[in-house]
Write a structure and sequence with these properties.
alpha/beta, about 15% strand, globular
């Protein structure tokens, strides 16, 4: 694991449309709101959130590979790739960086194909259904895994 205080926050396909796409499912918060929440939550533990979004599977994989030497942990919302991408699963397993999977909606109350996640198998924890607050919870859990306590 890299000796860094950076948490890589990865958001996958269509998350750039937060606040616009299906607000009844994903809420009205935007990706900028998620990124601000992550920065604030990480700072409480002396961490820095490096937030990135891509609709391209290979780009997400390249960022995961780089995290081997640049990040203490990963928070990932791989979106629909969670349910389809063995390649993202393999990248997460390969880098051995502590990872938390996040989903804004409760995937278990949705279509059956969303009930299985390849990325969850590569994470030490998975959160769903908390809206964007799931990112705050994920950062808190990751900080605990890293032995970080809240700064006063």
């Amino acid at each position: 694991m890299a000796s860094t205080n950076t948490v890589l926050v990865l958001n996958g396909p269509n998350l750039n449309l937060l606040g616009i796409r299906e607000p009844e499912t994903y809420g009205h918060a935007t990706l900028a709101d998620v990124e601000a929440l992550c920065a604030e939550a990480a700072a409480k533990y002396g961490l820095t959130a490096d937030c990135r979004q891509s609709n391209i599977e290979g780009e997400l994989i390249n960022w995961i590979h780089a995290a081997r030497t640049t990040a203490a942990g990963i928070i990932i919302n791989a979106g629909a790739y969670s349910h389809t991408s063995i390649a993202i699963h393999d990248a997460l397993v390969g880098v051995k960086v502590p990872t938390v999977e996040v989903h804004i909606s409760n995937v278990y109350t949705r279509e059956d194909f969303r009930h299985h996640s390849f990325t969850a198998r590569a994470a030490f924890a998975s959160l769903c259904g908390f809206g964007i607050e799931g990112y705050r919870l994920a950062i808190s859990g990751l900080a605990a895994k890293l032995g970080k306590t809240p700064l006063t």
